[in-house]
Structure formats: structure tokens, C-alpha cells
Amino acid sequence: MFFLNLHTHHPEMRSNVLAVRNFSPKQFLVNRSVGPDSDDAPALVSMGIHPWNADEMVHAELATMASLLQDKQVAAVGEIGLDRCCDVDFERQQMVFLAQLKMAACVGLPVIVHCVKAWDELLAMVRQVDNCPSLIVHGFRGKPELANQLMKWGFFLSFGTKFNEDTLRQIPLSSLFLETDDDADADIVSLYRRVAEIKDVPLETLQDAMMRNAHLLGFCR
Ligand SMILES: [Zn+2]
């Protein structure tokens, strides 16, 4: 059975890991001609414009994004979102996030979300979208209270190597994903082992639950 890595910026060579590799539309244009990372490793792609990159030139990239979304390799839209702690104009971040949310809704793909100190604004945007797709907040490090609030809104939470252990203990497997993000040294299999121990479940149960969540959200179309 696979170890699903919900979000990574690096190639994956192991055949027992199913990685969702993140690209900007520009990066995906270059990389899709290259093909999977190795002959063995299955590969899924998430594609999106990060709030940090929502600059003045973003309209061209939004158009590129729209034209690439039908590619069968693309399993999710992301990472997209809102970040109060970066220098990028917040209004433009909101415009770019909403545009991509609507694209995801149109093609029915799940969304990987980057959100820093903008939860209310995030929810306000999500409510503007008809048939809003499933949202997964990636790199979640928040406390149990915030996790509960987000799960009440129907969000999934993806944990990287740094997380709040109390939160991890209380979150049901049916709302959970695991990821290594941009950490090239992080090992997804070790993270699964660590999480299985903390949650006191067999490794296979964790693997099975993550794959089931991915299927449920339509990752493997
Ligand atoms: Zn990332």
C-alpha cells in the first residue's frame, strides 16, 4: 500500500510513495513534458499560484493556469491561499485566491490551502464560491481549538514534520493528511511512523485512511 505525501515541492523516486508534487503553472508547463519523476514512482500534481507570487504579472499566470487545468496529471489545485505575513498586496492575494477557487470548483478538483493569520477572510472567500470543492489546509500547526473550527467548516488538515501534538491526537483520521512540503530532508515514511505512534494506530491503518481520504476527495481520477 502507498504512503501518500499530500504536498511536496520535491521529486519522489520511491515506488511505495504516492506524492502530490506541487508546481506553479509556469513550472508545470516546463515539467509536464519531462514526465514522472522516475519510471517506478507514480506521480500526481497540484498546481496553483501561491499567495507569495500574486504579483502584478499574475493575470498572465492565471490564464496559463486555466489552460492547464484539464491535464490528467493535475489532481488538485494548490497551494493557493492567503498570507497576512508576507509583503504581497492582500487585496490582490484575495483576487487571485478567489479566481483559482472558482477554477477548482469548475473542474471539480480538491484544493490545497496555504493560510497564515487570515482564517476569517479565507472562510468569507470560500462562501462566495458555488459548489466549493474540498479544502485541505496544508502545514497545519494550530491548536486543537482552531482545528475543531476548521473541521466544523468541513476542511481537511494536512500535517508536516512540525505540528501541535495535542491537535494531532484529537483529529480523526478521516480529516487528516500528511506531507513533507519544501523540506527536502524530511522523509514521509518516518513521518507516518511518528504519527502512527502518537495516535496509537497501526501503520497500515494510517496508510489506508490517507488513501481513502484522497479517493474520497477525488485525487485519483
Ligand atoms: Zn508548500
3D architecture notes:
With 221 residues, the chain is of the alpha/beta class. The chain has a single domain, classed as Metal-dependent hydrolases (TIM Barrel). The protein is built from eight helices and eight strands. The chain has helices spanning 25-31, 58-68, 90-107, 119-126, 144-152, 165-170, 188-199, 203-216; strands at residues 3-8, 17-23, 43-47, 74-83, 111-116, 135-137, 156-159, 176-178. It has an eight-stranded parallel β-sheet, sandwiched between helices. Helix 5 links the parallel strand 6 (135-137) and strand 7. The radius of gyration is 16 Å and the shape is globular. Bound molecules: zinc ion (ZN). Zinc ion is lined by residues 7, 9, 22, 79, 181-182.
The overall number of domains is: 1
* Helicity range: 25-40%
Element-by-element helix/strand order:
EEHEHEHEHEHEHEHH
CATH class: Alpha Beta
User: What oligomeric assembly is this protein in?
Assistant: single chain
Number of helices: 8
**CATH overall fold name:** TIM Barrel
Q: Please tell me the CATH architecture by its name.
A: Alpha-Beta Barrel
CATH superfamily: Metal-dependent hydrolases
Ligands present: zinc ion
Shape designation = globular
Structural Rg? 16 Å
Mean pLDDT across the residues is 94
Strand content: 15-25%
Distance between the termini: 18 Å
**What structural class do you assign from the helix and strand content?**
alpha/beta
Instruction: Tell me the total number of β-strands.
Output: 8
Side by side, the strands of the main sheet go 1-2-3-4-5-6-7-8
The description of the largest β-sheet is: 8 strands, parallel
Low-confidence stretches: none
